[in-house]
Amino acid sequence: MDVKLTVLGNHGPYPGVGGACSGYLVEEGENRVLVDCGSGVFSRLQQYTGLENLKGIVISHLHSDHMSDLLVLRYAVDIMQNKKRMDAPLNLFVPSQPEDDFDRLNYKNAFNINKISKDTEIDIGGLTFSFRKMIHPVLTFAVKVKGKGGNIVYSADTSYSPELIDFASGCDLFLCEAALMNRDMGENPVHLTALQSGDIALRSGVKRLLLTHFWPGYNVEEVVAEAAAVFPSAEASVAMRTYDV
Ligand SMILES: [Zn+2]
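That is the input. Now the predicted structure with zinc ion docked in place:
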């Protein structure tokens, strides 16, 4: 059985025209888990699955471009519970900070909220999720998903991190943010440049590199070319495309 990754949205920190921010559906057989839920993701998710068929939602960090659609998705859960189409809260796994953002998630009986800490390893519907803390202004975790058929590492948001190289080591599919280009790196970047994404992919020995978290102001082909200078098979993730892992 193959693990599949569907890219629902790959923009950040805001969606470009017709786009959506970070959101990725991971599936193995009937097991479906949503990873991140930025603006526009819930609408696109419903083209693939209803909420009643989702085993859980994992959020890498509480920046709005990775979680804002949770604030409307929870209304849908509540309504489905009232209509008896869902009989339990949806399992939600999120970092516990920033506290104000964490506290906002609690709504009626919509979510069964679990805090992610550094060492959490959890089984969600037969897929194993593990986490590694990244370098970003809020508590942020890279996410590893292991299924029977393969594994995926998702960088979340981070500046250059040796921890990410270790965490992604040898993975089948490396979904890595490339929010910046080298020319715009500045002195204290909170994101990776495409060049750094390629470098991390090379050092980790990943089998496949898919770039994501595209800033709408960039030409994606140029972003990919920058990463491909060090990791020649680098690809742009394509929204609404499903990848076999
Ligand atoms: Zn962020």
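The longest helix spans residues 70-82.
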